[in-house]
Amino acid sequence: MSSQVGTLLNGRYRLDAQIGTGGMSTVYRAFDTVLERQVAIKLMHREIASDSDQLERFRREARAVAQLNHPHIVTVIDAGEDDNTPYIVLEYVEGETLKDRIRRFGRLPVSEAVAYAIEISRALGIAHERGIVHRDVKPQNVLVDEEGSAKVTDFGIARTLDQEGLTADGRVLGTTDYVSPEQALGHPVTGQSDLYSLGIVLFEMLTGDVPFKGDNQVAVAMKHVREQLPDVQMRRPEVSSALAAVLDRATAKDLDHRYADDRAFIADLEDVLAIETARSGQATGQATAVLRTLPPSARRRLPVRVTHPVRLLLALAAVAGVVVLAIVLLADRTQRGTGQPRNVVAPPGLRSVSLAQSGAGDFDPPPGDGQEHHDQVRAIIDRDPNSTWSTESYQNGVFASGKKGVGIYVDAHPSAAARVMEIRSPVTGWEGQIYVASSGPPKTLDGWQRVADFTITAKRQRVQLDTARQRFRYYLVWITKLPPGRTKAEISEVLLFQ
Length: 498
Known about the structure:
It comes from Baekduia soli. This is non-specific serine/threonine protein kinase. With 498 residues, the chain is α+β, with helices and mostly antiparallel strands. It folds into 4 domains: 8-91, 2-Layer Sandwich (Phosphorylase Kinase, domain 1); 95-299, Transferase(Phosphotransferase), domain 1, CATH 1.10.510.10; 308-336, no CATH class; 360-497, Sandwich (Jelly Rolls). Helix content is 31%, strand content 23%. A hairpin with a 3-residue loop joins strand 2 and strand 3 (25-32). The longest helix has 28 residues, at 309-336. The chain is globular.
């Protein structure tokens, strides 16, 4: 299906950028011209809109999710049809998917992983109470907003438990990396199946990888049926026995041994979060927000420094007010970004842009595999000239067939009107382009706006950006040609000036 960017649906919703696609629909960032706000539009593919079963599934998604009102579920705003093409209007969530987050950071902090599992299970619990099973729980279907909160989306194959006839018996729906044994076998699917899939998501958050791999989807699905989950404590020793036990129960293949409902699963996760926080003596990231929502029974496990941070800060202030002030100022700088780079002279009339400490990501869109040394991305913003991010090695310096390039981007959150980018590279002779985006980051190159072309002729190269002084959040270095005689390009730093 060709992109419909620029289309105005029903004279109201303007499609601004493609941000995702699947077998049934394409998702766009759009603008509601009536209420003047950004929304997300899920537009059904024209070629399958004539299929009555697929059309009914699409409409059923809108009806199902419209029933759900929860802070950790992406809200359905509207639904309709334009030129016989159905669409669903959803809340637009600025941020990234949980899968993207795992790819960027690898293993998440234990308390953060448990906190996300709690938020997701609370969302699923609301759906299950209304008889709706998601059936495709995976980190790709969890959005993490700018505040770090998780929101479940894509109920595209959701099904009410009292509805029959829309899914053929024995047909397996869902993603096999996270599929429950009963779903893989084509057996009846219930809320327990969603809990199994969430258990696999939790395993991936803790270890940085899915538990089973195989030559094809069927092979992976059969491992979920037949093989025991790898020992999470072997892969990550700091995981507590309490958390390992919860994970084992959530992913039990026997339904009688698995959690029977969301409430029991959530209660155990809440206890584990309190235990993990007490062990470490602190909480970071989204765990901090989730801790405030724990019931009294779980909160009693928490240390005073977590349950009464204000009281603790006042006590510290009475002892060493100046030290506290310095800590607060340092914390603010850490949250805001990497700050003013050392030994950098800005171009006349410009100043450096502060980049978020976690604000870098690799970019390898289809036909690429979605990853380009994502474990090295922080090197371009760590202010260490000796650390580098590099492309993967390509034979004879030529990208794989059909691949036009690879890239890496920086996040100038919340936005910046950058006019110059400085690229520092230990190798010269490679070529590329600079792209920008206001939101996303976009998953395909079509979602980015091109603002410069360059050839790296020096180890510190400044590139003028044709942004018309508009503000953008993401700045992408897109590498189109590798250095002569080399198999890869390298970048040690990316700096922005506005």
